[in-house]
Structures are given as C-alpha cells and as structure tokens.
TrEMBL record:
Its cofactor is Mn(2+); Mg(2+). Residues 238-460 form the Malic enzyme NAD-binding domain. It comes from Chengkuizengella marina. Keywords: Metal-binding, Oxidoreductase. The active site is at Y114, K169. One of its GO terms (molecular function) is NAD binding. This is NAD-dependent malic enzyme.
Length: 474
C-alpha cells in the first residue's frame, strides 16, 4: 500500500491565473512539489487572459496544506482566492438534525401530537411510568454525554470543542444501528455535578453513553450512575474500547501463533481506556501486563495519588519492571497504545519479541506511524479509519446499545461485554484472516447484528432484560 492510500485529506484551492504570466502546469508542479496531489480540476470562469479554476488537492499530512498555500501565494501571475477544507465544509452547522416522524398537516394532526390529545398520553405515563419506554423517544434514544476532559488524545479541550466528536458518535449510532443518539456536552468537570445532571436528564433516555471523560473521575461517575439509574450507563472509552481490543487481540494472536497466557503486553496510557483494556486482558488470561504512563512503568513499590493506579500497580507487572517505555518494552509480544501520538519509536519495536503486535490506538495520531514499522511488525493496527485494521470502539457501541434497548436492559454487565467481543471476533473466519484484516470493518453489516444478538442473549441469561424480543422467546 502506498503512503498516498493512507490518511489522505483533501482541500479545494480556487486560483485565478493570468495566462500571460503563468502556465497552469507551473501551478500544478508547485503544488506537487509541496506534497499535494491534484486529483480534480474545475474551470469556474475563463476569458482570454484570466482563468479561475478550482483544484481539488489531496495531501497526506495536514502540515502540507500550509506549505501548498504559501507556495501558491509566491507564484507570479497566480492569485489564491480561497481555500476550502472539505472536512470543515462538512461540519458547517453541525452534522445531525432532528426530524419529526410524522408531518403535522392539519388541525386534527395538531391536536393529536400536541394539546389537547397529547395530555391523554401524559396521563397514561403518569399512571404507569413503564409506558415511557413505549410512548416516548426513550425507547430508542441514547444520550452521548461528555465533559470534554479527554477528547480523543487531544486532552482536556472543553465541552464546546468536544461536540464534533459527540455528533460523530450520534451519526454512527443512527447509521449503523438505527439508535437515535443525542450529543450533550456539559460545562462542568465536577464529578458530583455530572452525576446529578445525568440523573436529572435520564428520564428522556433509554441509555447513557459516557464519552471522553478523563480518568480517574470516569470510574466514579460511571459506577455511581449505574447503581442509581435503571437504564444502561456505559463508558465507551473504557468498555467499548476493551471489547474491540480483546476481539482484535484474539485474532492477531492467531496470526503470529502465540497463546494468550504466554504473552508479555506493554500498555501506555493508564487512563480510562488503558485500565479497562488491561482488565479485560487479565480476565482473558494474560499474565504479564506492564502499564506505562507519563512517569514510566507503574510499580507497586510506589504509592500513587490515584487509587486506580495503586490497584493497577498491585495487580500487574509481576516482574516489577521499572523505567521508561523503552526500558520495559524489550521482548514484549504486544504493545497497546492508549496514550498520545508519536511516543513509540522504531527502535522500541525492534527490541520487541519476534512478530510483534503493535496496536497504536491513540486518536487522531497513533503512538507510531504504521509506515515507520511496516517492515518489522507481525500485526499492526490503529484506531483510525484510514489505515487497515481499525481497532475503534465504533465496532461495539452501536450494537451494544441496539441490543440493550431492544431487550430494555437495566445495565450492560460483564457477560454482555464479553459476548459482544466474541461477536466481533466471530465475524472474520480463519480463511479470511490475515495481518491486514484482523478485525471487521465498521461497514461490515454483520457486526451490529451479531453484537446485538449476543448482547440480548447474555442480558436474558443474566436476568437484566426487562423485555424478551420476539425472536428470542423460547
Ligand atoms: N481506538 C479507540 O477505540 C480508542 C478508544 C478510547 C481511547 N482511545 C485513545 O486512547 C487515548 C486515551 O484515552 P482515554 O479516554 O483513556 O484518556 P484518559 O485521559 O483517561 O487517559 C489517558 C492516559 O494517557 C496518559 N498519557 C498521556 N500522554 C502520555 C504519554 N506521552 N506517555 C504515557 N502516558 C501518557 C495520561 O497520563 C492518562 O493517564 C486517547 O488518545 C484516545 O483517543 C482510543
Ligand atoms: O472517538 C474515537 O474515534 C475513539 C475513542 O472514543 C477515542 O476517544 O479516541
Ligand atoms: Mg472516546
């Protein structure tokens, strides 16, 4: 695969040219020398001397966009009128909208959906609260709630800046699983206040997907809400990620022919995702996990100002390896990155055991660029959609909530999470599996249906389903 196939971004440059001063070919050459690839040309206006063209240009790195702009501005006879970034264009006005299910065409419709007839529905729900599940959007609606404190790997960028990610999650819920999801970004990072607000919002929703809330606050917020609410509360960055990671690791180990109880795993970023992934791997039989955060490997001889880290240090790193990532990664079979872009070096991967598995899952920039190590890895994966092997929680959250809503589950318990991981892993057959295809694509239609089915079965088996969907009745 060429580097151009990976991570392409495109911009449209509107350029006015004085044909007596500059030839079009010079403009194209300048763009390509700055790393851009002109993939389409639209003539907007032309007369004998002046022509205006829109050039669609793809780049592999965002930094190349500025280089191209600066270079074109220097060309004598060419004037850059404007630059449109297609990603920004797509975000104008946000990415989702509300739509009524039925039109209000006349007075009769009006009195049904609204006063006076709607009052009968309100009274029915007042008399039997369960009816909210059938007579309101609660049946099919999930809140995607963030406080903007750990947005992708961008960190604490606040609630306004978190919104595009939450809108994106809402789109995916709808497109992949027909779940109506509503993004809500809170202007508070106070644990108690978040718990209070989410509880107060909960009557509207059939489930709560917590997103991009940093650790350790995310643990308390999720567990308290789960105790206090009767609808599923699921922190996507913890469990959604762990489920998909586990499915991908089962598959990758088959390729490198290693057994789960013999591998040494190094995980960077001992936050929400890193801790949840570690726990699922321990439950699956991994014996040696070393967690590395900013100050190096977590060891139980140290006491941390973070209860989760103290627990983590007591329950991992059996050989008490200490030091930096480069120190502890020697002979590791698996690297799992859930920290920040660019922190893993080629030298570190060279020091790993034979056929190393590298899952660099930080978003949007992975811990290492796959191109740097493609010749030395056994299996490589990232969290991004523009590289092969996308290990991203989008493979789990749509199907999990689809299943949970369909059986009106009161929670998403451990059995349901494991069942979801098995469902994802089962989509790829032994014949299909190869090092570039360890995990199904987000667009593989079998994923949501298999996850949904497994989640409902596990919910029924563990008595957390309040409704048995028809196809599951014995
Ligand atoms: N691919 C996926 O599906 C997926 C899912 C969840 C999270 N992630 C990614 O994982 C990362 C962490 O997300 P989170 O929700 O756990 O956030 P978090 O804030 O809860 O945890 C991040 C942890 O990484 C540590 N960290 C940051 N920079 C580091 C560095 N240079 N070296 C070592 N440790 C470092 C932080 O100290 C923190 O403990 C983000 O990049 C996020 O995009 C990916
Ligand atoms: O949003 C994503 O792409 C995955 C994950 O939830 C993350 O925070 O990185
Ligand atoms: Mg997230």
């Amino acid at each position: 695969m060429s580097s151009r196939d990976l991570g392409g971004k495109s911009i449209i440059l509107r350029i006015e040219m004085d044909t007596e001063e500059i030839k079009f070919g010079r403009v194209v050459t300048a763009i390509s020398e700055s790393g851009g690839d002109v993939i389409a040309i639209d003539v907007i206006q032309t007369d004998r001397q002046i022509t205006v063209r829109d050039l669609t240009v793809t780049v592999t790195e965002t930094t190349q966009i500025n280089e191209i702009i600066d270079r074109v501005k220097l060309l004598k006879g060419a004037k850059l009128i404007h630059v449109s970034d297609r990603t920004f264009l797509l975000h104008l006005g946000g990415k989702i909208q509300m739509q009524p299910k039925t039109p209000i065409k006349n007075r009769e419709d009006l009195s049904r959906v609204y006063t006076p007839e709607v009052a009968r529905i309100c009274t029915a729900i007042h008399e039997d609260k369960k009816k909210a599940h059938t007579l309101t959007i609660k049946k099919n609606t999930v809140a995607v709630i963030s406080d903007g404190s750990a947005v992708l790997g961008l960190g604490n960028i606040g609630p306004h800046a978190a919104m595009p990610v939450m809108e994106g999650k809402a789109m995916l819920f709808k497109q992949l699983a027909e779940v109506d999801a509503f993004p809500i970004c809170l202007d508070t990072q106070d644990t108690e206040e978040i718990i209070r607000i989410v509880k107060a919002l909960s009557p509207t929703f059939g489930g709560i997907n917590l997103e991009d809330i940093s650790s350790p606050r995310c643990f308390e917020i999720e567990s308290r809400l789960n105790e206090e609410l009767d609808i599923p509360v699921f922190h996507d960055d913890q469990h959604g990620t762990a489920i998909v990671l586990y499915a991908a690791l089962i598959s990758a180990l088959k390729i490198v022919k290693k057994s789960i109880d013999e591998i040494k795993v190094v995980i960077t970023g001992i936050g929400a995702a890193g801790i949840a992934c570690s726990k699922i791997l321990m439950a699956a039989g991994v014996k040696e996990i070393i967690g590395v955060d900013r100050e190096g490997a977590l060891v139980n001889s140290q006491s941390y100002n973070n209860e989760m880290w103290n627990w983590y240090a007591d329950n991992t790193n059996p050989n008490q390896l200490s030091g930096s990532l480069s120190d502890v990664i020697k002979d590791a079979d698996v690297f799992i990155g859930l920290s920040a872009g660019g922190i893993l070096k080629r030298k570190d991967v060279e020091n790993m055991a034979a056929d190393p598995i590298v899952f660099a899952m930080a978003n949007p920039t992975p811990e290492i660029d796959p191109k740097e190590i493609e010749d030395i890895v056994g299996v490589m994966a990232t969290g991004r959609s523009d590289y092969p092997n996308q290990i991203n929680n989008v493979l789990s959250f749509p199907g999990i909530f689809r299943g949970a809503l369909d059986c009106r589950a009161t929670e998403v318990n451990e059995e349901m999470k494991l069942a979801a991981a098995e469902a994802i892993a089962s989509v790829i057959t032994d014949e299909e599996r190869n090092s570039y295809y360890i995990i199904p694509s987000v667009f593989n239609q079998k994923v949501v249906e298999k996850v949904r089915r497994n989640v409902i079965e596990a919910a029924i088996d563990t008595n957390v389903a309040r409704k048995i969907p028809k196809q599951f009745r014995k």
